[in-house]
Write a structure and sequence with these properties.
Radius of gyration: 21 Å
Helix content: 55-70%
Structural class: mainly alpha
Low-confidence stretches: none
Largest sheet: 2 strands, antiparallel
Distance between the termini: 67 Å
Strand content: under 5%
Number of strands: 2
Length: about 230
């Protein structure tokens, strides 16, 4: 008879393993590290997952989710077939990078309120990153170990948004609705990095500044809107 994970144990394993993987990276992490963080003996951990690879896959899938209402899988969780995790990441990024605000802005011929338009784009990006911060941080920390997965994020998801943001800035600057920048590519990257820091990376800052999620989102939106519209004709 297949073993079942005790209630709450999958969530505990996922949360503990995610924290260790993010702190140490995939290669440096040992199963003993995860067992210790989970409060389990190393041998007991193998009753739940076959391998480190078998644990990394559900961590990547569920690092930002609550799993209490999900059915517990049969134990031990098997090592995924080659390409399984990569396919999941590709499908998930394709689903999540559908950010309608910037698509709507690019399709818009007339702009009534450019500040409101920018606010919508930035706020949507902030929330998308914040909702997936642990998963994104996990990909960032494990990029050297999983270059194919890292490429999907950096070149695909992030790169795709950057390209759309650059197009947006060029169009609105030509219309005189936002400030003109000598290097639009650098300006777009700066905006994304500011949003990413406050939505994701500040939570792992060695010397964190205590700021609520609502305050962080508000100040980022205010900062970007002011930076783009100052000196323009909004």
């Amino acid at each position: 008879m297949a073993r079942r994970i005790p209630e709450g144990r999958l969530q505990q394993l996922v949360a503990s393993a995610a924290s260790v993987f993010i702190e140490q990276g995939y290669s440096r992490t040992q199963m003993a590290d995860i067992a210790e963080a989970s409060g389990l003996a190393k041998g007991t951990l193998y009753l739940y997952v076959e391998s480190k690879e078998a644990l990394f896959d559900p961590v990547l899938r569920h690092a930002d989710e609550r799993l209490a209402n999900r059915p517990s899988p049969a134990l031990p969780v098997p090592t995924p077939r080659q390409g399984t995790t990569l396919r999941y990441v590709r499908q998930e990024l394709e689903r999540q990078q559908q950010l309608p605000k910037i698509a709507e802005a690019l399709a818009r011929r007339r702009v009534a309120d450019v500040a409101e338009e920018i606010e919508g784009i930035v706020r949507e990006l902030f929330r998308a990153l914040a909702q997936n911060r642990r998963r994104i941080k996990l990909i960032d920390r494990s990029a050297r170990d999983f270059p194919e997965i890292a490429a999907l994020w950096y070149e695909g998801a992030r790169g795709g948004f950057l390209a759309r943001l650059e197009k947006y800035l060029r169009d609105r600057s030509k219309r005189g609705r936002v400030r003109a920048f000598g290097d639009v590519q650098a300006a777009a990257r700066l905006i994304v990095e500011v949003v990413a820091f406050w939505a994701i990376h500040r939570h792992w800052d060695a010397h964190p500044q205590v700021v609520s999620e609502e305050a962080a989102e508000a100040i980022v939106v205010q900062f970007v809107v002011a930076a783009l519209t100052s000196g323009s004709n909004p």
